Amino acid sequence: MSDDPLLKRTGGLAWLTLFASGGTLICCALPATLVTLGLGATVAAFTSSFPVLVTLSEHKVWVFVLSGALLLLSGWLLYRAGRRCPVEPGPGALCARSQVWNRRLYGLSVFLWLIGFSVAYLALPVRIWLGACRV
């Protein structure tokens, strides 16, 4: 394992952004999708079993702002100019491998955040707009 504090910080931030963007799915996208599919009773069971979902849904603006800020910070740390791995074979290979995994985690986090954002904020206006287009 490498003792480079920058590698530890970016790796930890990658996992934190994945957790935060996954939280946007749990609080907002999953319940909306389940209700759309006619599974409202499932949403009621989830919210009674996990009351924190109600709190997250009530504060979804802050959930999305915070997770979006974490994604921006993580993206800056991953793709900033001048980021290099050591030239020694052992630490260099470990650094390159961790960069690959951090970028994969970051891509997954951005994808999950975009799904959550589109379901929480774009799905209803698009549905209303499409319904208004019918004559």
Name the poorly predicted regions: none
Head-to-tail CA distance between termini: 64 Å
* Structural Rg: 19 Å
Can you count the helices?
Answer: 5
Strand content: under 5%
The general outline is elongated
Structural class: mainly alpha
Quaternary state of this entry equals: single chain
Total domain modules: 1
Secondary structure: number of strands = 0
Largest sheet: none
Q: What is the N-to-C order of secondary-structure elements (H for helix, E for strand)? A: HHHHH
- The overall pLDDT average reads 80
Q: Assign a percent range to the helix content.
A: over 70%
Summarize the structure.
The chain is mainly alpha-helical.
Task: Give a quick set of tags describing it.
single chain; 135 residues; mainly alpha; 84% helix; elongated
Describe this entry's structure for a reader.
The protein is mainly alpha-helical and 135 residues long. The protein has one domain (5-133). It contains 5 helices and no strands. It has helices at residues 5-36, 40-49, 52-58, 60-79, 89-133. Helix 1 (5-36) packs across helix 2. The longest helix has 45 residues, at 89-133. The radius of gyration is 19 Å and the shape is elongated. The N and C termini lie far apart (64 Å). The model has no long low-confidence stretch (mean pLDDT 80).
